Known about the structure:
Layout: H1 4-15, E1 33-37, E2 40-41, E3 45-46, H2 52-64, E4 68-72, H3 79-82, E5 91-96, E6 103-104, E7 109-118, E8 139-142, H4 146-153, E9 160-163, H5 174-184, E10 189-193, H6 194-202, E11 207-211, E12 222-229, H7 234-246, H8 248-258
Parallel strand pairs: 1-4, 1-5, 8-9, 8-10
Antiparallel strand pairs: 2-3, 5-12, 6-12, 7-10, 7-11, 7-12
Amino acid sequence: xxxxxxxxxxxxxxxxxxxxxxxxxxxxxxxxxxxxxxxxxxxxxxxxxxxxxxxxxxxxxxxxxxxxxxxxxxxxxxxxxxxxxxxxxxxxxxxxxxxxxxxxxxxxxxxxxxxxxxxxxxxxxxxxxxxxxxxxxxxxxxxxxxxxxxxxxxxxxxxxxxxxxxxxxxxxxxxxxxxxxxxxxxxxxxxxxxxxxxxxxxxxxxxxxxxxxxxxxxxxxxxxxxxxxxxxxxxxxxxxxxxxxxxxxxxxxxxxxxxxxxxxxxxxxxxx
Length: 272
């Protein structure tokens, strides 16, 4: 007999225009590890397999004994609806904890927004957005993200240079553009999500990334990252939770090798 939870999940899918099937769990493939991913979200996911989320997908596929396949779609409006809910794939490798569009696994890492500067910049020691040294300096930030709010609260609205939040990264590269401008000196700093900026900064000897772990006001700067599955697929979630728990050291090694800043669960310091 179908459970009450499954009935509620199907009803939710129907209300959101998703597929309505007799049993939600039937959508999951048992012959492939099917991943929903953005083809150009470098350094996270990439169609050429170079992203750190691609490496995590390969790790999980290996542990499950399944080949990894992808449903590619630009991450933004319609991503979940046209991939996961359409039944084209079964897991989103990186998804912020608490989003109601998916069923979250346990988190497998915590990271934070941070400030990118040149290593030889007068701002190299800045580790809070309230630092007076930032005043009057051009600062890059993605519009609509938590640090944009904190910068405005710190009286730096006139100093912000904004980039769009949702873009097709096959044709636009806001993070790369900001880092290039920091390197050239056109921007004094950029405030970016760690898993995006960290790996790119690691490749550039002139730049540094400082996690914002000391903020005391405004939106939080750190987030726990999970894997996302379809609503109602509790057994699949539990299986992934078990894989995360048993392979955490290997997961951490992949993230660290990529240059992702990993924090403790409370977002207070780098994970030891």
